[in-house]
Write a structure and sequence with these properties.
By secondary structure, the chain is of the alpha/beta class. It is about 30% helix and about 20% strand. It has helices at about 5-15, 35-40, 60-65, 100-115, 130-140, 180-190, 210-225, 245-255, 290, 305-310, and strands at about 1-5, 20-25, 45-50, 70-75, 90-95, 120-125, 145, 170-175, 190-195, 200-205, 230-235, 260-265, 280-285, 300-305. The protein binds iron/sulfur cluster.
Length: about 325
Amino acid sequence: MLQINLEKAIEQLKKNNFKKILVQIPEGLKTRTDEIALELEKNDFEIITIMDPCFGACDIKIEEAKKLNCDALLHIGHSEFIKTDFPVVYAPLEYKLKNLETFLKKILDYLNENQIKKIGFVTTIQYINYLGEIKDYFNKNSIGVNSKSGEKTIESQVLGCNYSSVPIEENILYFGDGLFHPLGIHFATKKEVIIANPLTLEIKKLDKEKNDFLRKRILLIERAKDVSSYGILVSTKVGQNKIIFARKIKKMLEEKGKSVKIFAMDYISEDKLLGTNVGAYINTACPRLSIDDYSNYKKPMINAFEVKYLLGENYDNYALDMIY
Ligand code: SF4
């Protein structure tokens, strides 16, 4: 079960004497907006909840907090990712796992059966609270565990746009749910990824999904190759804004005789692009847009790091950037 630990955040807000708080809640938790506001109001804070969509700690609404005359921003669901000139307090989400020890035993059996004696360990912020317990368990059972912090990420934390915490070991154990991060780990580092999903209790090697992913990417890039005009999508979200990169790509494509426009917006969505008339999109914002959500767009959308393949680089060494 997912839990929001507001206690620490409330303590921090009180310690700094912040009274007027702008609260930012990720999309998946919007149904708990009232519950969160009530809990904070009980502690004598004046609450405004910002309802714009939010998916990560790259999206910190400090300008809105300033405009609304708030003392601080309370960002729920994620951990610090960018430095700001305005007070931001984080209340990350945590999974409360039942039967962790039974699942760890299952992972241990899998590692022993596959004669894996050393792993690099990564997870997402929702499971970071179990890091110490997991490392202790494996160390006690003769499995070496390496973990490290990355550039802007805490120990063992991976993000869909940042795999810099992946350790050097050949076998990486990803403790978490979904395929987006394991695929990212593999294509950013070329390492073997073992997925241990504590929600489904499934343990497996990332296998045929790698080929499926690559096939889909190549199809998308090939579709985007055939057009003569591109729209480069830039997000104005504070941690996603890559305008310098967008200008560089524009120049590269124009040198190849393509027509290129840059389209900027806060939250990128198909409806905002309906009036435009380009043949394909190049996304410089969250990589998830073009990986998980590309089918929401009528025109092909590739990620900015894939422009090199558009320009002719061989797919043999297809890779994701370690930090997007
Ligand atoms: S850019 Fe995407 S993957 Fe990176 S932190 Fe933001 S929402 Fe997450």
